Amino acid sequence: MAMILIGFMGSGKSTVAKALGERLGLDVLELDDEINELSGKTIPEIFAEEGEAGFRKYEYSVLLAACENDGIISTGGGIVTYDDSYEIIRNTDRKVIFLNAAFDSLYERISDDNTRPLASRPREQVKVLYDSRIERYRAAADQEVDTACGLEDTVEAILSPTR
Ligand code: S3P
């Protein structure tokens, strides 16, 4: 069952993708890692040297490439802000899962992390970013899961959505 995981920074996409990959015996593609590989740069370097616009172009091309293979795609939180990437996710045949949590717990997980350029902004600005994305996450997703229930229950909710 090929899937795409979307959601804000700190929502647990990478952790859930890894657990799903193990359960389903599927490969997991981390788009942030693919971007590092493609560009030869870290994410903070890309933002510093090429801006967010440059980063979104890398993100779009690794998303396109990832969709060529089966498996689970774990995306970066801002992928839905770039129209071409958003259209791919909205129109894909894969199951699209939106991992969500209360903003406070997301923020707690990301605020001290210097590998995320957009999370180093003041809290109110990060909240504005979250609020501005939520509609797109919801519009693109087949299922929304609140990760407050923990990793195991999140994985179960994705694998048995009607339970
Ligand atoms: C971003 C989220 C990050 C990474 C980049 C931009 C965003 O991925 O792609 O720092 O715009 O929300 P995670 O969601 O895995 O932190």
Automatic annotation (TrEMBL):
Alphabetic keyword roster: Amino-acid biosynthesis, Aromatic amino acid biosynthesis, ATP-binding, Cytoplasm, Kinase, Magnesium, Metal-binding, Nucleotide-binding, Transferase
Binding site for Mg(2+): 14
Key word Amino-acid biosynthesis present: yes
Cofactor(s) for this UniProt protein: Mg(2+)
Catalysed reactions listed for this entry: shikimate + ATP = 3-phosphoshikimate + ADP + H(+)
GO biological process: amino acid biosynthetic process; aromatic amino acid family biosynthetic process; chorismate biosynthetic process
SUPFAM superfamilies per UniProt: P-loop containing nucleoside triphosphate hydrolases
Pathway: Metabolic intermediate biosynthesis; chorismate biosynthesis; chorismate from D-erythrose 4-phosphate and phosphoenolpyruvate: step 5/7
Keyword Nucleotide-binding: yes
Database matches in CDD domains: SK
Subcellular location: Cytoplasm
Residues that hold ATP according to the record: 10-15, 116
PANTHER family according to UniProt: SHIKIMATE KINASE (PTHR21087), SHIKIMATE KINASE 1, CHLOROPLASTIC (PTHR21087:SF16)
UniProt subunit comment: Monomer.
Protein name: Shikimate kinase
